[in-house]
Design goal:
The strands form two sheets. A six-stranded mixed β-sheet has the order 3-2-1-10-11-12. It is built from six helices and twelve strands. The chain is of the alpha/beta class. The longest helix is centred in the middle third of the chain and has 16 residues, at about 160-175.
């Protein structure tokens, strides 16, 4: 048995100072949005409570599906590092970037400099998709984080990464592993408005329909999501998280998943517990539990 925790969209605050060398029009507009709206919605105190609640779950591995930052400022990457280390050692925490982590031109170098240990596969090589094998589970990190135009927050996986993802999914299936795919933008149709959507979602869905996967985890929408995609022999479960630091003002309050996986390759059993922030008690409570049984796909 292995216990995973899935958390997303930490949007760590307070927002640090933006240096003149980091100024772009997109960042300036994002800064105005932060001052007008976002700073009233994301709370470091709630994020602290979420972190304490996660530690109480005694998870074996933590999965973080993007948007640790708000404007991709250098100081934000530095600021996020202690939060990630508080979740666990790099070998026990898997991270992918989100669109708010990708405003800068040198995004890959910045990710590697500050979060690289959390974003490498078993082979130790940087890049996406990465593959980590943990107790019968394949953790597959995909990046949909790309620089975007003004007023846009869409994502893209890209043809090269999709080709590598297909190979990783087929290889991990042949090894009899339960495959958990991490991506920031939701891959299901209609999950986000066009300016925030995954632009090559149909191509990603085609790969998953061919190769299969047992679970896809995402963030981006700031809401708890339950959906499914078509796989080669049945549906693929898709789950999304609300923002980890949300206080519930004009958006769903903070939420994360605890996922317990048992069984064997012939049939996996997943128990997914939904933990939401409860303002009345100023803590996290279980609001729902799911039981999924996933028969193994034939190789």
């Amino acid at each position: 048995m292995i216990t995973l925790v899935h958390v997303s969209d930490m949007h760590i605050s307070p927002l640090p100072q933006m240096h003149a060398s980091e100024f772009t029009l997109k960042r300036a507009l994002a800064y105005l949005s932060w001052q007008r709206k976002r700073k009233h919605r994301f709370s470091p105190d709630i994020l602290q409570r979420l972190m304490a609640d996660i530690r109480a779950q005694e998870a074996d591995h933590v999965l973080v599906t993007g948007d640790q930052c708000n404007l991709s400022l250098k100081a934000e990457f530095v600021q996020a590092a202690p939060w990630l280390s508080a979740l666990g050692l790099p070998e026990n925490v898997s991270v992918i970037p989100g669109n708010h982590d990708a405003h800068g031109r040198r995004r890959e170098a910045t990710w590697e400099a500050h979060w690289g240990a959390y974003m490498r596969g078993d082979d130790g090589v940087s890049g996406f998709p990465y593959l980590r094998r943990r107790d019968g589970v394949a953790i597959i990190g995909v990046s949909s984080a790309v620089p975007t135009a003004l007023m846009m927050a869409n994502g893209r996986v890209g043809a090269e990464q999709l080709a590598r993802l297909r190979e990783v999914l087929l290889r991990s299936k042949a090894e009899g592993l339960l495959r958990v795919v991490l991506i920031h933008h939701p891959p299901q149709a209609g999950a986000a408005p066009w300016r925030k959507a995954l632009s090559d979602a149909p191509a990603l869905r085609a790969v998953l329909q061919e190769t299969g996967a047992e679970l896809v985890l995402h963030g981006h929408g700031h809401a708890a999501v339950r959906a499914q995609l078509q796989g080669p022999q049945g549906p693929i479960a898709v789950r999304g998280c609300a923002a980890a630091s949300s206080n519930g003002y004009r958006m769903p309050a903070a939420h994360y998943h605890r996922i317990r996986i048992e069984g064997r390759p012939e049939e996996w059993a997943l128990e997914i517990t939904h933990r939401h922030y409860d303002a009345a008690g100023d803590g996290f409570v279980t609001t729902d539990e799911e039981s999924l049984r996933i028969p193994r796909l034939t190789v």
